[in-house]
Write a structure and sequence with these properties.
The protein is of the alpha+beta class and 419 residues long. The chain has one domain. The protein contains eleven helices and nine strands. Strands 5, 6, 7, 8 and 9 form a five-stranded antiparallel sheet that branches. The two termini are 19 Å apart. It is found in: Cell envelope. Its main location: other. Involved in the recovery of exogenous heme iron. Extracts iron from heme while preserving the protoporphyrin ring intact. This is Deferrochelatase.
Length: 419
């Protein structure tokens, strides 16, 4: 465990702060991640100005991997690698040991011992986190088929999606986040060079969120649809939080994944040209919230995003104040058997498509204890009845088993390879 103070619910201070910065709207098909108001750990306060933002350090080792419960950083690089033919279990072990050694140093603001190109030599740790996940195909390639989790089964096809396998899946997934884009790029380059001959880069995507301290006061960010975003993410301390996010042995969950999680990645393009043609009032009815302050349409204007949505309230016309196909109604846990995920997505904007429309949207990331009970049922319902889905296109996907944190003196993934 990290040597950090715990809150009353038994979670680390990192955990109590972290999910405030992780956010999407309510469900798996929603818009782009917007960081909820949060405070940085004391050693790297984002409000201090100057170099304070760069001094923020997130502990690398612990019960859970960093980058799950931590505050959302300003920038992220997502990438997946495929294990080389013949690398096998020994090659994978050597790679994970090398990656762990390098990440241990980089997250402390120190140069990696091997292949350091000095690009980030004068930068601090900048709240750098590196989070690792295993794709389903890795287990066969590494001779670990008997240890592949049952919940790592392929996600089902959903209506309206057009997935490009070249921009999704992969044997080894990494989420690299930091408050400085140079630090992010340097970390990915280091991992790529350490993997040479053992694993090859399959795809990568860059994303962004609001920079900590960019506003006069901490506040929830907005996504590329202009909506205040990140209101209803589950938070540590809430009943059943850990059970929704982290794995425990039992049933068909393997012992090596205890304290780990499952990550669903989706690249979701937003049809911004069509969305922006709607008047604000219509946009609000699609979402179920006001754009001005995030308050639900079931409550008076100005009541604030923290006001609970009341799905039983009627509007002036006698119909539901929150329309039947509004995103927050369709995605509400109460209507999905209590299904919930810890969402930590980022915006992306990669220029224009051949038709001139923006290639922009969401790098959706959701951590959960079991995707069969989290992402899959929620997305199935959203794809069939969510008014927001008309303005979204799912273009890439991935599902990964995220091992627990690296043990003291050990390496990421050791529980799988040596447990």
């Amino acid at each position: 465990m990290h040597d950090e103070k715990k809150g009353s619910a038994g979670f680390t201070r990192r955990a109590l702060l972290g999910t405030a910065g992780a956010g999407l709207l309510v469900g798996a098909g929603a818009g782009v991640a917007g960081a909820v108001a949060y405070e940085r750990p004391a050693e790297g306060s984002a409000t201090g100005g100057g170099g304070a933002l760069g001094t923020g350090r997130v502990p690398f080792r612990g019960e859970h991997q960093a980058g799950i419960l931590d505050p959302q950083q300003a920038g992220v690089r997502l990438a997946a690698f495929d294990l080389a033919d013949g690398a096998g279990r020994d090659g994978l072990r050597t790679l994970l040991q090398r990656w762990t050694k390098a990440v241990d140093r980089l997250t402390a603001g120190e140069p990696a011992e091997e292949f350091d190109n000095q690009v980030a030599l004068d930068a601090g740790p900048c709240s750098l986190t590196v989070t690792l996940g295993f794709g389903a195909a890795l287990f066969d390639k590494a001779g670990l088929a008997d240890r592949r989790p049952a919940a790592l089964e392929p996600l089902p096809a959903f209506p309206g999606e057009a997935l490009d396998p070249a921009r999704g899946e992969g044997d080894l997934f990494v989420q690299i986040g930091a408050d400085d884009a140079l630090v992010v790029a340097h970390a990915l380059r280091t991992l790529q060079k350490l993997a040479a001959g053992t694993a090859a880069l399959r795809w990568q995507s860059a994303g962004f969120a609001r920079t900590p301290g960019a506003t006069a006061r901490p506040m929830t960010g907005r996504n590329l649809m202009g909506q205040i975003d990140g209101t209803n993410n589950p938070k540590p301390g809430q009943d059943g939080f850990a059970a929704k996010v982290f794995c425990t042995p039992g049933g068909d969950q393997p012992a090596w994944l205890a304290g780990g999680s499952y990550l669903v990645f989706r690249r979701i393009r937003m049809l911004l040209d069509h969305w922006e043609e709607l008047p604000v009032e219509r946009q609000e009815r699609v979402l179920g919230r006001r754009k001005s302050d995030g308050s639900p349409l079931s409550a008076p204007a100005g009541s604030g995003e923290g006001t609970a949505a009341d799905l039983s309230v009627q509007g002036p016309d006698g119909g539901p104040a929150i329309p039947s196909d509004a995103h927050i109604r369709v995605a509400a846990p109460a209507g999905n058997g209590g299904a919930a995920m810890l969402r930590r997505g980022f915006s992306y904007h990669d220029g224009a498509l051949p038709d001139g429309s923006p290639d922009a949207g969401l790098l959706f990331l959701a951590f959960q204890a079991d995707p069969r009970k989290g992402f899959t049922p929620v997305q199935r319902k959203l794809s069939r009845g969510d008014g927001l889905s008309r303005f979204l296109r799912h273009e890439a996907s991935g599902l990964y088993a995220v091992p627990p944190g690296a043990p003291a003196g050990g390496y990421l993934g050791q529980q799988l390879l040596e447990g």
